[in-house]
Amino acid sequence: MKINEKRLTDTFLELVKIDSESFNEKNIQEVLASKLKALGCTVYVDNAGKKYNTNAKGNVIGFLPGTVKSKPIVLSSHMDTVTPGKSVKPVVKKDRITSDGTTILGADDKAGLAIILEVLQTLKEQKLPHPPVEAVFTLTEENGMQGVKNLDYKKIKGREGLILDNEEVSDLLVQGPAVNTIEVWIKGLAAHAGVVPEKGISALEVAAYALSFMKLGRIDKETVANFGVIQGGKATNIVMDQLYLKGEARSLKNEKLAKQTAHMKACFEKAVKHFTKKIDGKVRKPEVKFVSVQRYPAVNVPKNHPMVKSVVAAAKEQGFVVRPVASGGGCDANVLSGFGFTLPNLGVGCRGCHTLSESLELKEFFAACNITLSAVLAYRK
Ligand SMILES: [Zn+2]
């Protein structure tokens, strides 16, 4: 039981030559759907692409029936790349593949796509007893994860498996933060600052007061919060009546994120009370509009989850030590976790993703494919 390294490399090289920057995934989506069909999968393409501005129809879900009784195992990678990702000319070196330096390589995440195709091919070719496998290829991960957010996930029968969208094969991402984007609009009361400042309410002071007792920065080991944008004010002689703040909070625990967000909101409410006053006999108070939108939920795969254990064991056989680690950012796994999926994110061997010096380390690439194959073969549920 071994994958075909030459074929895996050829598939990768074929895929990186297909332009697929975010929102231009039509070609690769069609190629992948037909490759899955040729491998004996039932293929369903959802309508995610109709829900936002991409030229592709949708996410691709391929189902390969199992030869042993089990729930399906899910393998997922994204189809899009960042820019500049057009006319990629891969350069194959002894131990790695790079671009020619004028574009990205696109190993993020075409290495993942190639691995999944190779695993399916190996299962079929070597007639290995295996559970059903579901390949989930998503659109537009690199731009707000819009593909997966619109995924027709009810068409997927499995709920456990692997995402292949990380760099080093030794890092298995099992935790990733939930993120809320927070916007605050403060409306004070304008007044001539030189003549009657007491008739004004400064939106800036309201914000400053709220922020003075708000917990920001590092909240605890798992939680952080920050305001990164502030806009307001017209002139030095006007009490500032409008102020806009934009920030975010992140936590590895959904409950902690909710708590931090509520705390931030409460600080502004306290400031509103503090600055409420009588002006010319009338009660005047600042107005605060606080809007928090969840960008994506947290990923939290227990370190002793069978999926993690089987990856760690398979890696050991390949001579690699895989450690379950936390990420500071988000990927498809976060959104899928919100849909009830448990998908640790395995590295595919790329380096320098999103840069012109992106490379794919072949030894790790082959190992990631073998590890994925072993994890599939070991899966029973
Ligand atoms: Zn990626």
Looking at the overall shape, the CATH architecture of the largest domain is 3-Layer(aba) Sandwich
| Terminal Cα span | 22 Å
Helix and strand content put the structural class at alpha+beta
> How many helices in DSSP terms?
9
The largest β sheet comes out as: 9 strands, mixed
Task: Tell me the overall shape.
Answer: elongated
Listing every helix as H and every strand as E from the N terminus to the C terminus, the arrangement reads HHEEEEEHEHEEEHEEEHEEEEHEHEEEH
Number of strands: 20
How confident is the prediction overall: mean pLDDT? 96
Low-confidence stretches: none
Task: Tell me briefly what this model is.
It is built from nine helices and 20 strands. It is of the alpha+beta class and 381 residues long.
Describe this protein's structure.
The protein is of the alpha+beta class. It folds into two domains: 5-176 and 299-378, 3-Layer(aba) Sandwich (Aminopeptidase), CATH 3.40.630.10; 178-296, Alpha-Beta Plaits (2-Layer Sandwich), CATH 3.30.70. Helices cover 30% and strands 27% of the residues. It is built from nine helices and 20 strands. The chain has helices spanning 5-16, 26-38, 107-125, 146-149, 203-212, 254-275, 306-317, 332-338, 362-378; strands at residues 42-45, 60-64, 73-78, 91-92, 96-98, 133-138, 160-166, 171-176, 178-187, 217-220, 223-232, 242-251, 277-279, 282-284, 287-296, 299-300, 323-326, 345-347, 350-351, 359-361. Strands 1, 2, 3, 6, 7, 8, 16, 17 and 18 form a nine-stranded mixed sheet that branches. Helix 3 crosses helix 9, helix 5 (203-212) crosses helix 6 (254-275) and helix 7 (306-317) crosses helix 9. The two termini are 22 Å apart. The structure holds zinc ion. Zinc ion binds next to helix 3.
